[in-house]
Amino acid sequence: MLQLIDLHKTFDQPTGRITVLGGIDFHLEAGQSAALLGESGSGKSTLLHLAAGLDHPDHGDIKINGQSTRHHTEADWAEQRRNHISLVFQQFHLIPTLTVLDNVRLQARLCGRMDPDYEHQLLNRLGLATLTHRLPHQLSGGQQQRVAIARALLHRPPLVLADEPTGNLDEHSSESVMALFVDLVREAGCTLLMVTHSAAMAAYLDQRWRLHDGTLSREGEVA
Amino acid sequence: MSGLASLRRLMWVGLTLLSHYRRHPAQTAFLIIGLVTGVGIWSAVQIINSHARASYAEADQVLGAQASHWVRASDGGGVDPDAYIQLRRAGFTQLYPVIETRVATDAGEPLWLIATDLLALPRSEGSIDASGAGWLAMIQPPYQTWYPPELAESLGVAPGDTLTLSDGRTLPPAVPQSQQQQGRRLFMDIGAALDVLDRDRFSYLAAAGLDADTARELEAALPSGLRLEPNRQRLDLNQLTESLHTNLTAMSLLSFAVGLFIVFNAVRYALLSRSPTFHTLRELGASGRQLSFAILLETGVWSLIGTGLGLAVGFGLSQVLLPPLAATLQSLYGAVVGADILLRPSTWLLAWGITLAGLVFALAMPLWQESRQSVRAARDLSDRWVRDRTARRRLAWVGLILALAAGAVYSQMTTVLVGFVVLGLALFAAAFCLPVVLGAVLGWTLRALPEKAWQLRWAFSDGGAQLPTLRIAMMALLLALTANLGVETLVGSFRTALTDWLDQRLAADLYLQRDSLTREELNLPADADWLAASHQRVGLDIRWRGRPTEVRGLEPEAPDSRALPLADSSNELSLWYVWDTDNPVILANEQVRHLAGVESGQTITLSTGLGDRSFEIVGFVHDYGNPYYQFYLPRGEVERLWPGRAEPQGLALWLSDRPDAEASAEAALLAAGAQAGDWIRQAQIKTVSLRIFDRTFAITAAMNGLTLGVAGLALLTALLAIHQQRLPDYAHWRSLGVRYREMGRVLTLPLAVIVLLTWLASMPLGALLSWLLIHDLNVLAFGWTMALDWDWAPAIRLGLLTAGVVAAALAVSLWRLHRQLPEALRRLGGQS
């Protein structure tokens, strides 16, 4: 589903050029989930951003569903994200002027894959069924993150990329939201790559990879 | 020691806050643009207003800086040279003769001509340099006419040229002169003027530096028919031009207010984006007082920068605005304005004071809002648009209070200044109510849209998020549009009034301009088959109630006399047409009614050649744009009451409907002694009049353009602020796969609706503004009325112009957004 081939990324800093990713090779099969672990500043988010087309590598290729994205324009990437990739961030990034329901439906509407039954099911599973007409600022942090998850999954995207999705929540909320998130991703048949610095959160996923000094190494499969 | 430490802490807080501008040059630029535009326009008008007033004072110099008194003929007929010689011989050497008259070139261009006796001019005047060799040529045939260089240039007169006047006379050879006191007037020796203008009397005698005792002695020594008056020249000009200057000041203050909105936006945005710094400083122990003091200090720095740059721009702008203003003053009042502009220290101080006040106002509200918020709430911007609803409601309350105040002041409106206060209150009331209306309309539309129209719903809901930053810009736009529409309607109504007035006043086909060519002298046969009717008018200038006044003698049976544009008349009007010496009645222009407070049926007294005479007012005539009082009597009465004083005022000829009537008329006129160029066709006069009119209102058009330009800038800064502030939101939309055109629709549609609503709101407000200007302020200022001529064309033109301005501002902002989005996308999830 997602293949990263010899990815390189460097940044220019006042102190000189820093190599963040020095030739990353990575492959994630459809329906699998993987956690990307690493210290702060190790390049986890950068790698995720490259995979989503939010940033571009200096060298290497990203294949999604076997298709190379080497020659993708910005507009191609936008289409890719619209139809095939969902992103979940630590900051919930809900649209503050839209209701919960409109926020949940947004990406499904954009790619034209509305599914009322699944929507009903998702809202119930995420405990949002009674909150659909509220505005984001009227929700707690945990509720807002569940809205972001519902929005990411409603159209059943082939690939979900998550960047510290529970980083803004307390420990108890983190665990319950993460368990639900992983369950829903699996039920929807999506492939998940998630950045986290928490081993506990990583434990929910099929694979764990660690990024250190610009190189990626697999830590072992979880049963 | 502790004082030094707290000063150091204060410096540290201040420098931390100021460092924001170093990292955000765009915000710095907005702030400077706002300050410079606001202060620039205001100071430009301030500079030209004070410059014009100084020019009036300078204009008096040619008649004597200390020309404290004038000797005039009671009947307005001028002063006999013999009387002047007699008074000089009696020891009144302070007296010098002046001829001041309005002439017209053969192209119909009006000019002021002034003449005096250089040798009689007291040394204390020091105004005209009579010591050089040049003056001898001036006072000897063939004489000289001194032209201010810019006037000579605009008339196309080269040195040595002789200018031909509309009555066929030619002026002595031209000599360009830079006598500052001459202003834009032609200057001649008095002997030359008597000769060339074929006059036998001076306009008046000026007396320089006359103390009270000498004035009493002079008054006692005056021959009968002459009287001593204090010099009212300066007073007259100030009286006449006060309204125009008040108008300009109001327009400049409006521009300043609109500029202030830009500053308000920029300051508010800068404070908002500095919120994290602000609250980090608070968390680190900086007190609210230290922060407030640091921000006030920053305000002081900005006010100095704004004043300096604003005055520099204002000075440049005043150079651009001066020519149209000078044209306006010359056309309307014959007032002359010199070309050298000076920046006075008082303007510096006033500009700084007003900038400081404006900045404190722009900072006060955001500071107050900041101080009331908890640190957590201030850090969270997601619900700012919800909190803004409360702010909008508060603004609406202020608007309502302003509207009530406008209503209350309106009932007490007696001066032009109070009139402008009412206008200001009404305009700002509407501006303050606008955001709540915009929010309500967006909300209603959102609720009315069906679930399926999700993109529209998204767009309209996004309007709510744009409104907090956009509302200030929309208030500015509303003010600019309303002012534009109001003034455009006013000018359009003026133009219609002028055209109607010209149609009524210039009903005849041909006008003989040479005053010496009267009907009697031409001996035109009354039964000529090319001639349908004729009207020989006479007139003279007098003073009534301390103001220049014109008495016109009309022939009651003439077609234009039968169709006088009456504003109001009494039942006794017929007495004017069928003159009855026992019941002397008179017509007056509206100015007499509105400025002198005389009503129909009342009696007025005029000084005539036969002594004081009383007349009952039986009607008022519309008299467009005349700054003077005017009275109308039958021609015979004028000639009887002011024997030998009434001068011909032109002969009007109505042609018959014979196909060759015009050719026959011209042949007959030539045969009767007239020369080609002595007559002018009606259409020519109308063209010249309308050209002068358009030049007169050039200043208004310039101010309109500037105000709208400033509003466009306010909008641009608001859009840039919105897009900068919401960049993470837009990056997130893009991360969801939202296409640029979808993003453009969501951002543009609510803006288009908001601008459309603002434009729609400006129409009734513009109509109200023009109604107040025409029905109240115009009457208070000028003393004449006209009908409000509402035209949709300016409204549509303004709408299209606004759409263009909005599209340009949006394009700039979206282009910037497009460039910033890739970086914003990279920053979307932070770095780890």
Automatic annotation (TrEMBL), chain A:
One Pfam family in the UniProt entry: ABC_tran
GO molecular function, one term: ATP binding
Every ABC transporter domain range: 2-222
GO cellular component: plasma membrane
Keyword Cytoplasm: no
InterPro entries named in the record: AAA+_ATPase, ABC_transporter-like_ATP-bd, ABC_transporter-like_CS, ABC_transpr_LolD-like, MacB-like_ATP-bd, P-loop_NTPase
Signal peptide: none
Record flagged with keyword Aminoacyl-tRNA synthetase: no
Keywords assigned: ATP-binding, Nucleotide-binding, Transport
Name recorded for this polypeptide: ABC transporter ATP-binding protein
From TrEMBL, chain B:
Source organism, top-level taxon: Bacteria
Keywords from the UniProt entry: Cell membrane, Membrane, Transmembrane, Transmembrane helix
Keyword Cell membrane: yes
Any Pfam family: FtsX
InterPro entries: ABC3_permease_C, Membrane_comp_ABC_pdt
Location in or out of the cell: Cell membrane
Residue spans crossing the bilayer: 248-271, 291-313, 349-368, 394-411, 417-446, 467-487, 697-722, 743-774, 794-817
Coarse class of the protein's main subcellular location: membrane
Topological type in the membrane: Multi-pass membrane protein
Stretches assigned to the ABC3 transporter permease C-terminal domain: 250-367, 704-819
GO cellular component: plasma membrane
Name of the protein in its database record: ABC transporter permease
Species the sequence originates in: Saccharospirillum salsuginis
